[in-house]
Design a protein that fits this description.
Elements lengths: L1 H35 L4 H29 L2 H20 L3 H27 L7 H30 L1 H21 L19 H6 L1 H30 L4 H25 L5 H18 L6 H16 L2 H11 L5 H30 L1 H26 L1
Helix pairs in contact: 1-2, 1-3, 1-4, 1-5, 1-6, 1-8, 2-4, 2-13, 3-4, 3-6, 4-13, 5-6, 5-9, 5-12, 8-9, 8-10, 8-12, 8-13, 8-14, 9-11, 10-11, 10-12, 10-14, 13-14
């Protein structure tokens, strides 16, 4: 039984690597292709916002669907749509098509993400969840390193259009893996919840869930802003696509390194203690970005930021699943995804406009202030949880 669970977790991790490589690479590629097409900073912000617009509106419904039918069919259909979204700009390489592609890629990956999170959360005992999510989070670190690096190398070697096709190959391989492991994916996860109306407000009123939602949103803002800002910031100081990919790869390498030790730490350190440290480290790193332009220093700051943001994700997911009502785990992940994508939709627009008016410095410093404030909030939750 333990061997089957390990194989299932390994398959989920590999599926995540393949899907997320295409997704995270596309965010860098869409930004750089838009810059290549002389798009404004506001237009680039709008493109990044479209990644999150429909996920913001549909994530709760997706979570409820997955609670009812399990993960297999949602994973299969969303994987096909992810491949289609990545292939569109290869077939029709224009700025207008990027708007359609960004919407399709973001929406399909949201369903992939909710499905895989739900599958991991259903494995093992509550005491195992932080460890399982630690291994699961390693997948995002691997793909977060490979996606930008491969994208940058491919753009410089072959151009923007072939790079879209390269990225589409990764989720296509994931669909093949899903076919071979389809019987390992549960048809329905956990017991159905009690009858009656299922209201989102009831989840938001739960103090443990509400605190985890707030912390998760702040950390995701920090992660999402880095993905949005770094290609623009790198281009503004004259870095090549390959160099931008290397700088962003150092961020992913840090998340991998810190998550590699998280399974050992998960049983020894309180969740809120880790979240407090994560926000403090990330806030300090963001405050320094506008002050440097040398590649080694940018890599060092990206690595520091990756350590901060990378260590908190498994703990946040463990907190959410521990506080979730029975039969509503997928819905809780959907609510979290909705809240995150609400910020992802608004932040690129707001920070794109702010960057157009005042440069990149205020963008970094605003994010630093948010994260430092979040560290104070998490510290209070940590004291309350003792």
């Amino acid at each position: 039984m333990a061997g089957r669970k390990r194989m299932k977790l390994a398959a989920i991790v590999l599926l995540t690597v393949l899907a997320h490589t295409g997704f995270v690479g596309s965010r860098m590629l869409v930004s750089l292709f838009a810059i290549h097409r002389h798009a404004s900073l506001f237009t680039i912000g709008l493109l990044m916002a479209l990644y999150a617009l429909l996920p913001m509106l549909l994530a709760v419904s997706a979570g409820r669907l997955i609670d009812r039918v399990g993960t297999l069919r949602p994973l299969a259909w969303s994987g096909l749509l992810l491949v289609a979204g990545l292939s569109l700009p290869y077939a029709w390489p224009s700025l207008a098509v990027l708007f359609v592609a960004a919407t399709l890629i973001g929406t399909s990956f949201m369903v992939v993400h909710v499905s895989l999170n739900h599958a991991v959360g259903s494995m093992g005992t509550p005491a195992d969840r932080a460890v399982n999510f630690s291994w699961f989070s390693l997948a995002f670190s691997v793909s977060g390193f490979c996606g930008p690096l491969l994208t940058g190398l491919s753009i410089d070697a072959a151009g923007h259009r072939p790079t879209f096709l390269l990225l589409a190959a990764f989720p296509a391989a994931g669909l093949m893996l899903l076919y071979f492991y389809r019987h390992a994916m549960p048809h329905r996860l956990g017991p159905r919840s009690e009858g009656g109306e299922r209201r989102i407000i009831d989840l938001l009123r739960e103090p443990r869930l509400r605190g985890a939602f707030v912390a998760s949103g702040l950390l995701a803002m920090g992660w999402d802003l880095y993905t949005f800002v770094m290609p623009i910031f790198g281009s503004s100081i004259g870095l090549s696509a390959t160099t931008i990919g290397i700088v962003m790869g150092s961020f992913a390498a840090a998340t991998f390194a810190v998550r590699l030790v998280m399974p050992m730490m998960a049983r020894r350190v309180r969740e809120w203690t880790v979240v407090t440290a994560a926000m403090a480290i990330a806030g300090c790193a963001y405050s320094l970005f506008p002050l440097v332009s040398q590649v080694p220093l940018l890599m060092a700051l990206s690595f520091l930021l990756g350590i901060g943001l990378g260590c908190a994700q498994p703990m946040i997911m463990a907190l959410l699943y521990s506080a979730s009502p029975p039969g509503r785990q997928g819905e809780v992940v959907g609510v979290r995804t909705t809240l995150l994508n609400a910020s992802h939709t608004l932040l690129p627009l707001a920070f794109g406009a702010l960057a157009a008016l005042g440069g990149m410095g205020p963008v970094f410093w605003f994010m630093s202030a948010f994260l430092i404030s979040g560290a104070v909030f998490a510290r209070r939750r940590d004291r309350h949880a003792r």
